[in-house]
Amino acid sequence: MISFIERKSTFFNRFAFAAFVLVANTASAQEHLNLYINQALQANQGIKQQNFQLEKSLFALKEAKGMFLPSVTFSTTYTKADGGRTIDFPTGDLLNQTYSTLNQLTGTNSFPQLENQSILLNPDNFYDAKFRTSMPLFNAELIYNKRIKQQQVELQRAEIALYKRELIKDVKTAYYQYAKAVNAVTIYQSSLQLVEEGKRINTILLKNEKANRTAVIRSENEVFRINAALTAALENRKSARAYFNFLVNRPLTDSIVLDEINVLPQMDSETNDEVGKREELLKLGIAKEIDENITGLSKAYIVPNVNTFLDLGSQAFDWKYNDKTRYYLFGVSLSWNIFSAGVNTYKIKQARAEQHSLVEQTDYIEDQLKTELYVRKNDFQSALAQYNAAQSQLKTAETYYNDELKLYKEGLAIYIELLDAQNQLINARLDSNIALYNTCISYAAIERASASFNIQ
């Protein structure tokens, strides 16, 4: 029995040393975690949806730019008419008498008699086919529309960065939660082996009348308790693995490779109270610029729009086409909104009211984000203090356990006392494990609150 307990003591001492060395700056290599983060950024469905929205915004910007270029359209009309207004032309009344005199003088019928004409104003059997090339020479509305579309692209990019930053925080948190669950299972598994061995030895001692039944009952209860805790830890590990794989867009039961954490995170000099990198503020800044351009768009009616066009076509009766039917038509048009019953003025006032609202909203959100960062920093300091306390408690528990082990070897302590020291050691290791990863999770929250994590 003594040799088995010594082996377990050696295992615990190694575990304690491994936990003790986790005290430094967060420069540890987290290669697998970074790979998982990149995988999540590439495969996450939410980011894919956001990228589609960005693609849509980019196409809208190209559309706005295309409005400045010439456009060519083809149009044709054909008319068949009968009735309607006419123009009466007395051809016969004017020329027939003269023609008759000429025929008498010449002794011929070379000059026929004419009838009065009634000309239909509506074109009958007439076509008009043309290519029209048009281009704006100056249009303030198009200029502001292009600026707004450009800013909407930037707004969507900020939205994607915001989504990525939140996803990175969630992936890190889930990763550390899973690591915490894995270590908890390891601790409970080793503890279960220890209490089962203690139960076996106490049973032998009871048969040899060298121990009372209380020690056996207590050791049996410890086996049940650790077994139940191990079962819960295993299920918690499954849940943590499934949630992490969900974030990374992998099958829920895929295995996860854990990095060895050699250092504890610490806030560096760059982690201050500034939140200017937060995408939330960036989005509000872009929204204010959009509103400024919307105000300019509302004022665009003050400036006239100038456009030009060129028509190249053919028009004639009876589908004729020759050098007489072809034509070109060039022109410049100017339009100016002189009066609209105050509609444009109300649009300007609406845009300015929205600008004032965004200014107030930005101040409020900035204060809110600073408060969040302040709270996250306090949470991190608290988690760090709890980890240091857990480490101190772990060393105390190890010392207590080793002392009780020596006394137990010498027959100066009963099993219940050794078991109590063992339970304190197990709890201290669990607390140290929890405190370690809570510190990492708190630091991930600071990275999110300060937007300090570099998104590739």
Textual characterization of the structure:
The protein has helices at 2-20, 31-43, 45-66, 91-106, 140-207, 213-248, 279-299, 343-409, 415-450, and strands at residues 71-79, 86-89, 117-120, 126-138, 305-317, 326-335. It contains 9 helices and 6 strands, in the order αααββαββαααββαα. The protein is of the alpha+beta class and 456 residues long. Helices cover 65% and strands 12% of the residues. It is rod-shaped, with a radius of gyration of 44 Å.
Key structural traits:
alpha+beta; Outer membrane efflux proteins (OEP); 2 domains; four-stranded antiparallel sheet; two-stranded antiparallel ribbon; 65% helix; 12% strand; rod-shaped
Q: How do the SSEs run, as a string of H and E?
A: HHHEEHEEHHHEEHH
- Share of helical residues: 55-70%
Tell me the span between the first and last alpha carbons.
56 Å
* Overall number of domains: 2
Indicate the topology.
Layout lengths: L1 H19 L10 H13 L1 H22 L4 E9 L6 E4 L1 H16 L10 E4 L5 E13 L1 H68 L5 H36 L30 H21 L5 E13 L8 E10 L7 H67 L5 H36 L6
Antiparallel strand pairs: 1-4, 2-3, 4-5, 5-6
TL;DR?
The chain is 65% helix and 12% strand.
